[in-house]
Queue: 2 jobs
Job 1
Amino acid sequence: MSVIFRNHVVTAGAGVKPMLFGHGFGCDQNMWRLVAPAFEADYLTVLFDHVGAGKSDLTAYDAGKYSSLEGYADDLVEIGRALGVSGGVFVGHSVSAMIGVLASLKAPEMFESLVLVGPSPRYVDAEGYHGGFTAAQIEELLASLADNHMGWSAAMAPAIMGNADRPELGEELTNSFCRTDPAIARQFARTTFTSDNRADLAKVTARTLILQCSDDIIAPEAVGAYVRDSIPGSEMKILEATGHCPNLSAPAEVIAAIRDFL
Amino acid sequence: MTGPAVEDLQDLYENAPCGYLSLGPDGRIVKSNRTLSSWLGIAPGDLIGKRLRDLLSIAGQIFYETHFAPLLRMQGFFDEVALDLVKADGQPLHVLANAAERRDAEGGLMFTRVTVFRATQRRRYERELVDATETAQAQSRLSQGQLLAEHEAAELREQFIAVLGHDLRNPLAAIDGGTNLLMREPQSEKSQRVIGLIRGSVLRMSGLIDNVMDFARGRLGGGLQLDRSSKLLAMTLEQVVGELQTSYPERQIELNLDVADEVVADHARLAQMFSNLLANAITHGATDQPVEVDALLDGGELRLSVANAGPPIPQEAMQQLFQPFYRFNPHSRVRGLGLGLYIASQIAKAHGGRLDVASDATETRFTFRMPLAEQPA
């Protein structure tokens, strides 16, 4: 089966140099719709959905393969190989930042530069490491997802109605964005929030930029600093944007920071 | 002059039947209403400056940041989102929330307005739905397991019956063959009588095995299967009479057959039923009186009856006669499984007919009636 179909890969842009964008836990490639178009003049932009999210092929979901981030990184490498990516740029948000790190270790020639937006190599605190969450808090999250009552009622299917204020958002997007199969979302949450890839950071050879939001509960500033200190030669840029999704809340700031870096 | 009462908008905001919350561009609370404060048990002043996520549990915060915050940014609104706010006392406040962004002419975010509705009952209902779904799924898995177990048990029984039939019939066939051989040679009168008794026992045992197998098959899989053919009924009946007469040469059997035409039926099954009825009449009836067999094709119906003299069957026993494993005289010297009449009635039923019994001081008569199908010309 084609990885292009499996991961709903969408390419655009007039450039030659490939620039891939990976979305985080909770949403799909639409996460990038305010950022990616800014690079279409100079790059070949590549958007995709992780298997289990968005318009990916849900039948390709394999609980065993995707029980670790390695499975997602293998997919990213396959996408890169299918498109002949070499010396490209990878922009990864949230968990996709670490997926990009792992992919760059598996295929060092593929990405010359990594942009990690809100990365975290480990969400759970450990001795000498501040991840931002206690193991009990992560367990509470996973249990409440398993419990299935948080947000899965009408919440995942926002009202089917036009959005007069934002006509650029078609009804299709309005209805599908952030909707996921609950069982897959639970497993993706477990894979994401129980991951520990701290040891992989030191092996990264690509040029790396860390975009750190202010006031991000998912990936606090201390975690961003840890990533910066662990990846040789990496630099960190603190954004004024708050929250965990600057690519949506402050796209201009994100675009400018990436441009500066590249 | 008093006009219609004018709504007090300030009061509507503060004491609305729902909670209001306004967030500034930085996501911090700039205004909230009294209703929400009282639900949360947090004074309005203490809410100012907090972020929406500060009112959520850690798990709720993660979910909010990864799902609803991007949804709000993408769409400019979200509707009917289930949130669990944390009250001042630490208890959850189950709510449904709608949110909408208010932007200025340049598209800059001014406020995010959130309306909150209590949804405790609804949450409980959803919780019950989820539980019910899980219970139903578990039960479905369980009953599938049971079905599988029953299927295996049924297969085992089928095998048991097949083995039973094979293993019991083979030695019986050997005994039958042996007595056949002996009968062709000159024997003393005493030997001949013994051979006759052996053959009677073989016949009875063969019938018992047939009954057991039929019973088991009938019970396990959709009743008796018929293999119909068109034959002269007289031949079928006379063969059965011949067999039993050989085994009970001292008994008198009166045959009144008015069945000149061929009958479409499973003749082997009819013979089995008739043999059961006739053997019953011979073994239970008065030994000094003849057994009477009447067969008649009349008005589109076959009537076959077997009658014997002797003490009548008690009224209370009549109800039970056709039940499996019923023996109305357990102390009878004639032992059986109590399946003969049950199977006879099943054969009658399979032919679209029925088996009845009438018993008084004069006689006990079993009558089989069966509608005749289109007979060949």
Job 2
Amino acid sequence: MIQARFQLDHGPFSLDLDVQLPGRGVTALYGESGSGKTTCLRCIAGLDRPARGLVEVNGEVWQDSERGIFVPPHQRALGYVFQEASLFDHLSVRGNLLFGLKRVAMAQRRVDMTQATELLGIGHLLDRQPHNLSGGERQRVGIARALLTSPRLLLMDEPLAALDTRRKNEILPYLQRLHDELDIPVLYVSHSQDEVARLADHIVLLDAGRALASGPIGETLARLDLPLALGDDAGVVIQGKVAGYDTQYQLLTLTLPDSQLRMRVTHTPLADGLPLRIKVQARDVSLSLANDAQTSILNRLPVTVVSELAGDNAAHVLIRLDAAGTPLLARITRYSRDQLKLHPGQVLWAQIKAVAVLA
Amino acid sequence: MLTGADYSAIGLTLKLASLTTVILLLIGTPIALWLSRTRSWLRGPVGAVVALPLVLPPTVIGFYLLLALGPNGWIGQFTQALGLGTLTFSFTGLVIGSVIYSMPFVVQPLQNAFSAIGSRPLEVAATLRAGPWDTFFSVILPLARPGFITAAILGFAHTVGEFGVVLMIGGNIPDKTRVVSVQIYDHVEALEYSQAHWLAAAMLVFSFLVLLALYSSRRTRAGWS
């Protein structure tokens, strides 16, 4: 478990946070620029020192201003990936990777050179100089360099923000592997909903230096009381499990968490039981009173209406649904809502027009 | 041709410049590091004091040093109390004068180099478990290497070229304080123009070569990617 509490006043900007985060998996610090995400990360790392603060990472106290404890950054077992890779230019790629590794006691090393270079696909770059690398390669080296200090917490400050879409897509799979293969808790700062949906298990929503919400990603994205619900990208992330593949139609079957409900997506074959993360956008979900099989829409789920919210404009409403425990959002017109006479507790069918496979 | 006294002056000059450069790198580095990092109000005043020798006539610096190092000056009192006598008209006095006189030529290139590095590499080093001293030797020093080279060359060359301060506090004592610039002055005073020519030409060529090396050295990128 990670506990972070800060109070910081920088003129117009103030930070007043008190969050408890899971000690495993990826936690996204999500918010607009200026919401205090990076400051929060820097305070946890000890790069900034708030006058009042408490940082505790899985039982280890890094800062407690009330007891006068402040562990300097170089004595904290953390890894930090900056927005720009910030490699040392006077060292080769290998030199950069070894910089942190050789400063960690043998007994505390849990990630070795082979593992880190393979995980990030940089084995062939070791003898190159940083200025001969592409932006994406540099960032992968930066991530491997941080991993090689065997951190108890990995802090990532928008590691993809400085890259173009192609480079982003080049790195995302590596980040997903990191998530799947290493048991290091990650704090991931981002203002991209797409990255958050792909990578995060837990999300902290920041706004003007305050935490608006903190919770598991599936539940939090489906909350109607947060500004997330009003965005065009409003939707939910579902962590399903692979349960069969139809080779004739190239369709993968998924079961939803803790339920018998199934969904099918077009995908290449995957082994049964593997986790698969999908995103269902609110605008891709429509509602129907009957289970209409005479349709091209593949996924139809029985759902219960939970609540509703006025949408981003007067014509729309946002409906929160429950599909046997899995939250769903549907954005429909106010007209349709009245036609269907929607009310909480009502049982009907959600038709899902599109599903994005995230990981 | 050069006489024995000329060679002695050259040797003394090189000794003075080398010693001054080493001392300046040692005390200039922390000053430059502080100037490039601090947010203290003292930054302005300290920076101005370091830069004073750039604008003051050497005689002004020499005059105050003469007073301070002399028997009634506060440094003079101190050295006398230590049983060292006074440092005026001694080689040690010359070194002190040169260190002050050449200070900006070492501190400013270093300060620029440290500023160019910025704070990010230091933060990166800290997150990779390097403590402050470790960071200085493994990150700052190698990244600021071009700055150190410039600082050393300028500090050395400027000390070789000094005259006024030397004359004020060192006087003109053969083998102790008579450096090349003073020796040339002596030759001219004695109307030994051909002697003066040899030394002056040597100085000219030396200074030109040093600056040539400095300005044509490939400007290495301000080491950061």
